[in-house]
Amino acid sequence: AASIGNSAMIIYVYLAHLSSIEWHRFGTFRTVPEGQSTSLRDYIRLWELDPAFDHLRLFTFSEAMLENIGLYLFVGTPVALVLLALEFDRIQWLSCLVRE
User: Most exposed among 1, 41, 42, 81, judged by the fewest C-beta atoms under 10 Å?
Assistant: First the structure.
């Protein structure tokens, strides 16, 4: 149940993040020096990956997690504690098996 709750929270956090993106501006940079391209395709075609990756960082889970850090911590902390306890019990069980 803990893993399902955690998975549901991760999916919600990422979908909420994706829904907040201004999709009509996808592929363009917000601020660029005058004379430079505003198209993501141009940067990729010219193999200028630093500005391309900088723009695509909006689609990482890290960005989504930071926007919803309160929810992430509220759900993720208890789930992490449950999984840690379960893993500790599993390790103890395996250690007993190895000793026998």
Answer: 1
Q: Is the pTM of this model over 0.85?
A: no
**Maximum Cα–Cα distance for the chain, whole Å?**
73
DSSP 8-state symbol, 36: S
Supply the DSSP symbol for 29. Answer: -
**How far is the CA of 87 from the CAs of 23, 71, 81, 92, 94, in angstroms?**
42, 24, 10, 9, 10
pLDDT in tens, 15-53: 888 888 777 666 555 566 666 666 667 778 888 777 777
Q: How large a percentage of the chain has pLDDT more than 70?
A: 83
Q: How many CB atoms neighbour CB 22 within 10 A? A: 9
